[in-house]
Amino acid sequence: MTIDFHDTNNQTTYSTRDADQSWIQLITENINLLGKDVVDIGCGGGIYSKALAELNVNHVTAVDFSEEMLKGATKNCKDYNNISLIKGNAYHTKLPSYKYDFILERALIHHLDDLKACFDEANRLLKKNGILIVQDRTPEDCLLPGNDHHLRGYFLEMYPKLIKKETSRRYTSHEVKTALESAGFKVEKSVKLWETRRYYHNFESLREDLLLRTGRSILHELTDKELKLFVNFIETKLQHQTSFVEKDRWTVWFASKK
Hints:
Layout: H1 21-30, E1 37-41, H2 47-53, E2 59-64, H3 67-76, E3 83-87, E4 100-106, H4 115-125, E5 126-136, H5 139-142, H6 152-158, H7 161-168, H8 173-182, E6 185-200, H9 203-211, H10 224-237, E7 244-257
Parallel strand pairs: 1-2, 1-4, 2-3, 4-5
Antiparallel strand pairs: 5-7, 6-7
């Protein structure tokens, strides 16, 4: 039951929220985006393409391999004349070489089998001294216990069968750094980011989000019956709360082209 990114029903699953201020602050504190040409590889529904477009960049080229995701992104980004969307993949974006100042690859690499090929393509696109930002969860990030903010931890608590699925598709920080260096990048830093995912005013809004599996590919590993049981489990964990702030922990690598 793994998520099918080409399914029309999943067209908007990654376009129904805005990038959080915690993410925007991390980017602006580390990168000067003024007037820059940017590529968002694996753009999904265009959430972060929009965020970048609002940070005084010159232009954002948003790339995804799924036509359905791009349809969702087109709707999401329709008011931005400095965003263009193209179909391509992380190994072959079809974009010109040595043209771009900055590349974002957020929540992308856990879908890929060949990190070096992905980073080689990013290197080809970037100008000299261009910056690549990779953001994803490491196995360590995934295995943090659940709490009032970190709801993902409860996924694995109730369904331990998801642990192997979740961690086997994740790369360690060492693996990411090694692949980046092998592809001609210098890793300037890596940081941990607790990024606010969404605010929920009541449990019903959270329930609806979970039942729709919105932006959570791991929940596509559960049957509808298992998902309903999980939502009931979450409700017992959060029964003392009336509103919720959900956060996810990510690792973010900043790398410069040598």
